[in-house]
Amino acid sequence: MTTAKGTITAKDIMHRGAQWLPAHETLDRAAQLMRELDVGALPIADSAERLTGILTDRDIVVGCVAMGHDPAQTTAGEMTHGTPRWIDSGADVDEVLREMKSHRIRRLPVIEDRRLVGMISESDLAHHVSEAQIAEWAEEVYAQI
Fold first, then answer.
1. Which of 139, 114, 99 minimizes the C-alpha distance to 45?
2. What is the Cα–Cα distance from 96 to 73, expressed in whole angstroms?
3. Residue 84 — very low, low, confident or very high, per pLDDT cuts 50/70/90?
4. In which order are the strands placed within the sheet that holds 21-22?
5. Among 123, 96, 110, 98, which residue's Cα sits nearest to residue 40?
6. DSSP for residue 65
7. Are 11 and 110 in contact (CB under 8 A)?
8. At 113, is the secondary structure helix, strand, or coil?
9. Distance between CA 77 and CA 106 in Å, rounded?
């Protein structure tokens, strides 16, 4: 996607100020940080600050609390599964949409110089892409398996 100012990038549409949560932190601390930041998801990092996954508020409730586990004894790292997805800050919006659609994800960490610089969520997309693009994205991400 381009404008009179040029190509719109991941950095242009991301929510700034995203924070890592170390994998060794407990889920109760994750929930507190989510409340403080007013977010529903946090990127999880290992001791070398490499992305290991994303933890959502739903993961805490469904994967821990509803299973009878103690969020004060369960770590964020225990809840992350699969291969983490991310996008470079210089990637254009079309690439962001492709990455999110192809992996059916609703949140995407933005990395610059090996550092987390932001997150892209559904809300960010809704504010920065066309209605046709958001409709196509939603159809892919929310489609039945």
1. 114
2. 35
3. confident
4. 21-22, 41-45, 51-56
5. 123
6. G
7. yes
8. coil
9. 20
Predicted pLDDT at 17: 80
Residue at 118: amino acid letter = G
In this prediction the pTM is 0.84
pLDDT band at 5 (very low <50, low <70, confident <90, very high): low
Q: What is the pLDDT of residue 3?
A: 47
- State residue 145's pLDDT score: 54
Tokens 């192809």 belong to residue: 102
Rounded CA-CA distance 85/104 in Å is: 11
Q: Would you place residue 4 in the very low, low, confident or very high pLDDT band (cuts 50, 70, 90)? A: very low
Which string of b and e fits 69-103 if b means at least 16 CB within 10 Å? Answer: eebeebbbbbbbeeebbbbebebbbeebbebbbee
- Which two structure tokens, joined as six digits, stand for 33? 């940080």
List own/partner pairs for 126-131 with CB under 8 A and 24 or more apart. 127/13, 128/8, 128/12, 128/13, 128/93, 129/1, 129/13, 129/93, 129/97, 130/1
96-112 pLDDT per residue, tens = 999 999 999 999 999 99
Q: Which residues contact 102 (CB under 8 A, 6 or more apart)?
A: 140
